[in-house]
Structure formats: structure tokens, C-alpha cells
Specification:
mainly alpha; two-stranded antiparallel ribbon; two-stranded parallel ribbon
Length: 179
């Protein structure tokens, strides 16, 4: 989803006459922090698909570490337009994930809207997401918004995801704007 936001933002910048060459001049700090965080999240996803039960006790710690790295990386780049929106979105996702044992709750109702069979969605172990229950804490920050992406992908997003996408769009538009 975030990759799609980058592509659409770049296309929009080009359509409005923005200078895409300026994107190459952006001096992002701490990118290694974000890449390490995505690596940790990828390990959790991959571990879940392989059924690595040994990872289960580490889920909250690894989720905390990955979001702490993302937030630190974003904070280092807070001077760019849109980054504070990304920080707010990532913080919202971080809060709901940590409040629910290290996994993002997903609305079964949103899954049904998209035609996703809830009984099949979490058939194999999932170390990054879980079905929302009545006990879900901070449910309004969870993945509750069904969306069909511009590439026909069915996704369920959170308020935090919307803020992150807005921040990506805002940053790319600001950087590519003619001076």
C-alpha cells in the first residue's frame, strides 16, 4: 500500500509539472533504521507463514522494536513536509499494536465488505495481524477501513495508514514543487 502511495504521488507530481529530479536531492537520515524495522516485520510475516512457534513469545518485543526504529527514522527527518503526519500515523499503529499483544487487529466486518472469507484469512499462523474481538483495545486505530487499491488489491487499512499515505504524498509534492 505504501509503495502504491509513493508511485501515485510521483505520478501526480509529474502531472502537475513537478521536478522529479529533486527527489534525488532529498537527504534522508537514518534510512537504515526503517529498513531494519521492515526486515523485522518481514521476519515476523515470514515466520508466521512457516509456522515458527518459537517466534511467538518474541512478537511483542519485535513489534515494539520495529516501530521504535520506524519512529526514530521518521523523527530524524521531521523537517520535511508531511513527516509529522507519517509520525502520527506510525504512532497510532504502534499504539494499537502494542495494546493488543504486538499484532494489528483487523476488522472481520471490513473483511466481509471486501469479500474476504474470515475463516480462511488467518488459517496459517499470523504473527503480525489478528482478528478483532470485543476485547480489542483502541479498536478505532485498528485496520477497520476496507479499500480496493488503485491496483485492484483488497486491503484493510487503519487511520494511521491514512496519515502515513498523506504524509508520503505531502512530502513528495513539496519536494518536487518548482522553486
Amino acid at each position: 500500500m505504501f509503495f502504491a502511495a509513493v508511485i501515485i504521488s510521483i505520478l501526480w507530481a509529474k502531472l502537475r509539472g513537478g521536478d522529479l529530479g529533486r527527489l534525488g536531492q532529498v537527504d534522508l537520515k537514518g534510512t537504515w533504521l526503517v529498513f531494519l524495522a521492515f526486515g523485522i516485520q518481514g521476519l515476523l510475516s515470514w515466520g508466521g507463514s512457516l509456522g515458527w512457534a518459537g517466534v511467538v513469545p518474541w512478537i511483542p518485543i519485535l513489534a515494539f522494536l520495529s516501530y521504535a526504529l520506524i519512529l526514530a527514522g521518521l523523527y530524524l527527518n521531521r523537517s520535511y513536509p508531511g513527516v509529522w503526519a507519517m509520525i502520527a500515523g506510525a504512532a497510532g499503529n504502534f499504539l494499537v499494536i502494542m495494546a493488543n499483544g504486538g499484532r494489528m487487529p483487523v476488522s472481520a466486518a471490513a473483511m466481509k465488505v471486501l469479500g474476504v472469507d474470515t475463516s480462511q484469512a488467518f488459517r496459517s499462523p499470523n504473527f503480525t495481524h489478528q482478528i478483532m474481538t470485543p476485547e480489542t483495545t483502541l479498536f478505532w486505530l485498528a485496520d477497520i477501513i476496507p479499500v480496493i487499491s488503485p491496483f485492484s488489491q483488497k486491503v484493510i487499512i487503519s487511520l494511521g495508514d491514512i496519515l502515513i499515505v498523506y504524509g508520503i504524498f505531502r512530502m513528495i509534492q513539496a519536494v518536487t514543487r518548482e522553486q
